[in-house]
Amino acid sequence: MTSRHSVIVLLSTFFTSAMAISGCDTNSLTRRAAEKIITEHFHYPRTTYFYLREGEAKSDWGFDSMYIITEGTDGEFRDRDGFNFDEAMKILSKFDSLGYIQAKKTESLQKSYATIFITRQGKTHFQKAAWKEREQENWWKKPLMKYGVDQITGIALAGDNVTATVEFTMHDYDYDKPLVVLIAPRYLVLNHRARNDAVPMRKYDDGWRIEENRKRR
After folding, report:
1. At CA 210, angle to CA 206 and CA 212, rounded to 5?
2. pLDDT for 20
3. Burial of 136 (0-12, 13-18, 19+ CB in 10 A)
4. Quick one: which of 196, 52, 65, 73 has its CA closest to 146?
5. Using CA atoms, how far apart are residues 20 and 67, in angstroms rounded to an integer?
6. Do the beta carbons of residue 78 and residue 71 sit within 8 Å?
7. What is the pLDDT of residues 171-183, one digit of tens each?
8. Which of 1, 98, 161, 188 lies at a C-alpha separation of 20 to 30 Å from 174?
């Protein structure tokens, strides 16, 4: 009986401790917990891709056969950046000289129309892209960089202990600098690590969440 009683006491102590730890994890906002919440909420890390379409390319005011697009871990597009005609022609000419593409040239691609095909060598650098907005078109993509949360730099709890402001910095990695220099040198001025950001959070019965109507990014 004594032995059985000891086992019951031991199990009771174990479950009580586990519940206390769980409750602590739910009710306290640590830096590690805050980073996880931010990462999951905003679908970090995000990857910035260069998109290129095979086939006939047409230009009006811009160039509709290449884009820079940022995607979250949920696969949704977050940002899209286009190219003007002159930028596009320089990129195509460079890719052509590197053997990544074959392009139908007329006066060194200075006309509004060209035909673009990814070469066998190019396919070792690009990956087939499934762009659900344009499923019938033949798109390829190449990752330029990724970014996500670098570190939590501070947590300011309000006096009610149910709201807080979490400050953090961003971090670039897998940065293909030579390709960025070629495709979009303007992206080199971005420095996510140096950029400070902050989000408001509120504590609910199941833990802390980012407040949707007050989030800052």
Report:
1. 115
2. 37
3. exposed
4. 73
5. 51
6. yes
7. 888 888 888 888 8
8. 98
For the chain, the domains span 28-214
Q: Considering Cα of 141, then 129, then 108, then 186, what sign does the dihedral take?
A: negative
Is 66 in contact with 88 (CB distance < 8 Å)? yes
The one-character DSSP state at 76 is -
> Around 148, how many Cα atoms within 13 Å sit in the side-chain half-sphere?
18
DSSP E strands in 59-118: the ranges are: 62-71, 77-84, 101-103, 113-118
Residues 6+ apart with CB under 8 A from 2: none
Residue pLDDT, tens place only, 145-165 = 898 999 999 999 998 889 999
Nearest to 57 by CA among 136, 140, 114, 139: 114
Q: How much of the chain, in percent, has pLDDT values that exceed 90?
A: 42
The size of the chain, in residues, is 217
Angle at 190 between CA 184 and CA 192, to 5 degrees: 135
Tokens, residue 202: 């509120």
CB-CB contact of 172 with 141 (8 Å)? no
Measured from the Cβ of residue 43, the count of other Cβ atoms closer than 10 Å reads: 15
Q: Distance between CA 125 and CA 122 in Å, rounded?
A: 5
